[in-house]
Amino acid sequence: MKKALSVVFACSMALSLVACGGGSKPTEAPTTAAAGDTTTEAAADITVADTAAVPEVGAEVANKDKPLVWFNRQPSSSATGQLDMAALNFNKDTYYVGFDANQGAELQGIMVKDYIEKNIDSIDRNGDGIIGYVLAIGDIGHNDSIARTRGIRKALGTAVEKDGNINSDPVGTNADGTATVVQDGSMEIGGKTYVVRELASQEMKNSAGATWDAATAGNAIGTWSSSFGDQIDIVASNNDGMGMSMFNAWSKDNKVPTFGYDANSDAVAAIAEGYGGTISQHADVQAYLTLRVLRNALDGVDIDTGIGTADDAGNVLSPDVYVYKADERSYYALNVAVTAENYTDFTDSTMVYTPVSNQLDEATHATKNVWLNIYNSADNFLGSTYQPLLQKYDKLLNLKVDYIGGDGQTESNITNRLGNPSQYDAFAINMVKTDNAASYTSLLEQ
Ligand code: BGC
Ligand code: CA
Hints:
Elements: H1 2-14, H2 40-48, E1 68-71, H3 85-88, E2 94-99, H4 101-118, H5 120-123, E3 130-137, H6 143-156, E4 161-162, E5 165-166, E6 172-173, E7 185-189, E8 192-203, H7 214-228, E9 232-237, H8 240-251, E10 258-259, H9 265-270, E11 278-280, H10 283-299, E12 322-325, E13 330-333, E14 336-338, E15 368-374, H11 380-396, E16 399-405, H12 412-415, E17 426-429, H13 437-445
Parallel strand pairs: 1-2, 1-17, 2-13, 3-8, 3-9, 9-10, 15-16, 15-17
Antiparallel strand pairs: 4-5, 6-8, 7-8, 11-14, 12-13
Helix pairs in contact: 4-6, 7-8, 10-11
The structure holds beta-D-glucopyranose (BGC) and calcium ion.
Beta-D-glucopyranose binds at residues 72-73, 138, 144, 212, 239, 241, 261-262, 379, 381-382.
């Protein structure tokens, strides 16, 4: 239903540009040669292909000049969040694809607040007038995680400022409300004032160093529930992987609403069983953009092709699903709250986004080789939602992608498997740590 409506919307948006799905608009002629295929196979393609879109034979592209997209972990300082513009401007075909972290974080906070207001008659489990929550933090140095912690604290009134920003540090435990990284909030509902307290929060990092660790969250809720019991009225999490682990371990049986982020299929299904809600970061749009910016650079066409401007197959995104910030070289998908009211529209998180689901023609968009890594092969969101989407879009965009799964701990576990970058036409990178872009770019510069 949601998807069908989006198609209609996208079609009407695109009407002035090109008949939807008509594929009649010619692509712009490439201005630069695409990555260097010098094999006989590539040469054979030339005879059948539209010559305008065929790479110059013999043009060897240096690795440092090949299209590069960072995704999901934006090159930035883990201490300050400041963007690493050197990495984002590595070459003229470098971009980042992610989602609007602040808009999504605000939505998550508001979703929790709305839930409390609507369910005030049952939310305060021990009836002491304090609404207690616990929070699972993904990675204290990852700007998506930081934004979500801030979003929850801002909406619930528990935020404390630090250096002009909301403090996002974990509180540890805060049974009596005396912690300094958070404060007690208050909410007035139905003429009564309630205290809102962050009883506990911690970064879910396992002993080997992997962040956003679902198993660690499952253990933490065991510890928290044994010390706080029915003081816990709400469980909040920076993502669904950790949220579902806590839900399955404790909150489902105890009927405590649990909120996550990502709209992974299992979390959406759990809404029927009492999971409080989640946020879709429009992974269907992000996965498309991740590969699309590479495709466009390889084709030598305008970067907006198949994004804000319909391509020759009719693929186009409407402005309500993403923003592009040219000064940050970044595409950001927009987020949508998924709750009991609308979750049936989101049951399959691996379904391609219909407005960008048209197959490109092999004759004019010849197959190219892409190296792509996932920082941690055990990450719930990237593994169960993002990568399955990428594997659908790679075919639609004629990209042959090698998927490399990291251990979530060290960059070298991944970079060791980029031994011969010359084999590839383009790169898509998901760092372990947002500070570490140079671990990859240095390999491409050699
Ligand atoms: C997702 C998390 C995921 C992380 C990995 C975030 O955007 O919400 O679920 O673990 O990306 O970098
Ligand atoms: Ca209470």
